[in-house]
Amino acid sequence: MKRRKFKGVLFDFDGVVTDSMSDNFQAWKKAFEVIGVNIKEDDYYPLEGYSTLDVAKITLEKYKKDEDPKKISNLKHHYYLKSNRFKLYEGIENIINLFFRKNIGIALVTGANRSRVEWSLKSLKEKFKVIVAGDDKIRGKPAPDPYLLAANKLGIPPNQCIVVENAPIGIKSAKTAGCYCIALMTTLGREPLEEAGADKVFESHKDLLKYFRNNL
């Protein structure tokens, strides 16, 4: 991407801003145990990026359980908040503050419920001009709608936005929306991220910060 071509940056949440994948899995595990289902990591991790409700629906179908997905989604939300563990990735605040100081539009685009995101971010929430969450009334990832909505709310064409993702589903959403997409290897290796269509793949937030500093 050419220097200063982009005007907005759209961040995924879990696996990009917050190191929460393990806590998410444990919350899902407890929620499904209520109905007698013992899920494995392989059940959840490939679904990362879907809305909370969609994760519940897909998993219930897989285990052939006739339960209300909203009930399971709400249970997951309850157990996640009860764990009360929230950890930002090292370096992510420096990245967000870099854009904030330069008045570059920043959005958060996630499949997580808005209440969980806002509870987790606390004061950092004010740095994001736009938050698109999993319980908004739009099609979720991998459809392009979440990133299209975020770009529209920022008033920036999608092709002038960079998306930062960590999951193939999110990468496909970003690319279908017409955005440039950078992937972080926080949960998966390079190959599946490149196969999903990521334009660049970085190993760490440190590498990502260096890239942005060189392209502002």
Tell me what you see in this structure.
The longest helix has 15 residues, at 69-83. Helix 6 (114-121) links the parallel strand 2 and strand 3. The chain has 2 domains: 8-19 and 87-213, Rossmann fold, CATH 3.40.50; 21-83, DNA polymerase, domain 1, CATH 1.10.150. The protein has 216 residues and is of the alpha/beta class. It is globular and about 50 Å long. Strands 3-2-1-4-5-6 form a 6-stranded parallel sheet, with helices on both faces. The protein starts with 7 loop residues before the first strand and ends with a helix. The chain has helices spanning 21-33, 41-44, 52-62, 69-83, 92-101, 114-121, 145-154, 168-177, 190-196, 205-213; strands spanning 8-11, 105-109, 130-132, 161-165, 180-184, 200-202. It contains 10 helices and 6 strands.
